Amino acid sequence: ASKDGSVILTQSEDGDSGADARLCYVPARDHEADSRRAVFFDIEAYPRHVGLDRGPCYAPRPGQNLSVPIGHLPQVSHTYAYFDATYGMVNEHGLGIGESTCSGKFSAKAKGHGGEALFSIDSLSRIALEREKNARDAVKLIGGLAEQHGFYGVTGNIEVGAESLVIGDPDEAFIFHILADPTGRSAIWAAQRVPDDHVAVIANMFVIREINFTDSHNFLFSESVKTVASDKGWWKPEGGKLDFTKLYSNGEFAHKFYSGRRMWGAYRLLGVDTADDYTDLQAEIVYPVTAKPKELVGVRQVFDIYRDYYQGTKYDMTKGLAAGPFGDPDRFDTESQTVKGNWERSIGLYRTSSTHVVQTRRSNQGAVLWFGPHAAAGTVFLPIAAKATVVPHAYTVADPKNYSRDSAYWWHRHAFNAAKIRYNTAMQDLREIQVRLEDDGEKLVQSLQNITDPQILNEAYAKHAVNIQTAFSALPTTLMTKYADGWLNDDSPIGYSSDWLQAVGYSQGPPDDPHATLLRAACEPRKVKSCVDGCETLTFASCALRCTEECHDRPENAKASFLVRAEAKAPFHVTPATLVRRIS
């Protein structure tokens, strides 16, 4: 369903504070016979891993302790190079992955942390990229490992204890769902192939519905999918197909529409008409597992989906009092003991630590990873070839608690937060730079299509990263200069929209001072001043009066009063006596 025939896989990492937004390159390695591969308890806060086993990006910094394994498994003779963040993203052969945390009926805890499970989705995604070249084999590998050694969600509770991946290669892509089994020592998993001309949207909830157990081309699954459902009395073998989401999802977490609104929102941008309301997203089949988009999809369209706040719909988050006077669509986390409620969950989100898009294909340069640090609305997606062997340094620096001018994460975080000084207009300034740099990124990718030398690819994409740094590191200062204190470039007042003034009761504020009527200009003072400044000395009086003719609803002597009062502030470059004499 893509414009260029590539398979596109995406993810936004919408975690909480403290997330590790580093982009890391993990080099390929050869391993001695009988060596063991360490498996670690996965945390997603900074630093997510400290060790010597994944290349320089993860090497210990002063004050950091090495991560301690919770188990091991036999190592293979060779592991492939890949790019890594909270989860593995793409390897040198173009196998790509995106992730979405989900709820599940069962959850488990990790070994050494109150449970017996060895693998989280973080580790499984990395092992898939280390060992496989195609999506089908990757699904079978990680599903089998989870069955054999156990699966746990990072938090260990059912609300966010299950996981989804999209796994793709240049030829096909799968949706993969997984959760712990009831024992906490194994796993339940299923995967469904995405048709070549279709798209799929996963938003923190399972989407796979009826599994056809006889269709091995389109469905892969663990036997536990059937045995657990049968043992629990949820499904009978003679019943045929099994609704995976209905049986194994625990529904939307946080609140109703937390997942469904985003599915509707993304499908709407892809030209797929779906419902925006429902009773129970788990029990009802509201959205398709996959759908054919109205038009072929490009990576820039995917970027725009991740920047969507339902603009132009009845759920538009740039509207209403909650958006403030300047149409800010972000809603910060709220913990009120006295006011109960929920914010709408948008696709674009301030607390995103990074977003990535994998464009996987076989020809020449091969797969391309587009990586955007911090919130998608305020980031520039940097392209990097999957065959490259380094990450531009600034993208490997992302300590969320320590500001760094050498960090791509902080360039974007700073610029995005600076734009909130006047969101509706400042974001237009940011967007102009964003569009220009992403245009340049697309042109760069196209120009390198026939290049296979990693060194050339490294240097070309690193140069583009410097261009992004130059623009975005300077942007906060530009925005502050332009919008500080409610003035535009420290000149004209910006003010507020009429809709917002009406909504907040501005017209119900203190009444006008009746004694000031004759002293107030009914038209904009700066315009009057500019007009009067242009009057010639000999015809000054008549000229000055003409400058105020558009001021309505004023007594005849108001013009004179205005000019006299204005002259007290000396804007007209003549003495008060001269001014009074001229207009008398």
Account of the 3D structure:
The structure is a single chain. The protein is an alpha+beta fold. 28% of the residues lie in helices and 15% in strands. It has 14 helices and 20 strands. The radius of gyration is 30 Å and the shape is globular. The relative contact order is 0.09.
**Count of helix runs:** 14
Helix content: 25-40%
Unreliable stretches covering 5 or more consecutive residues:
552-584
Give the overall silhouette: globular
Report a brief summary of the structure.
The chain is 28% helix and 15% strand. It has 584 residues and is α+β, with helices and mostly antiparallel strands. α7 (408-419) packs antiparallel against α8, α8 packs antiparallel against α9 (454-483) and α11 (525-533) runs antiparallel to α12 (540-547).
Give me some keywords for this one.
four-stranded antiparallel β-sheet, 584 residues, 28% helix, alpha+beta, 20 strands
Chain-wise SSE layout:
Elements: E1 7-13, E2 24-26, E3 29-30, E4 36-40, E5 69-74, E6 78-79, E7 82-84, E8 88-91, E9 96-102, H1 121-131, H2 135-149, E10 162-168, E11 173-180, E12 187-193, E13 210-211, E14 219-221, H3 224-231, E15 242-243, H4 244-248, H5 260-269, H6 299-306, E16 354-360, E17 368-373, E18 382-385, H7 408-419, H8 423-447, H9 454-483, E19 487-488, E20 492-493, H10 498-503, H11 525-533, H12 540-547, H13 558-568, H14 576-583
Antiparallel strand pairs: 1-16, 2-7, 3-6, 4-5, 7-8, 9-10, 10-11, 11-12, 12-14, 13-15, 16-17, 17-18, 19-20
Helix pairs in contact: 1-2, 7-8, 7-9, 8-9, 11-12, 13-14
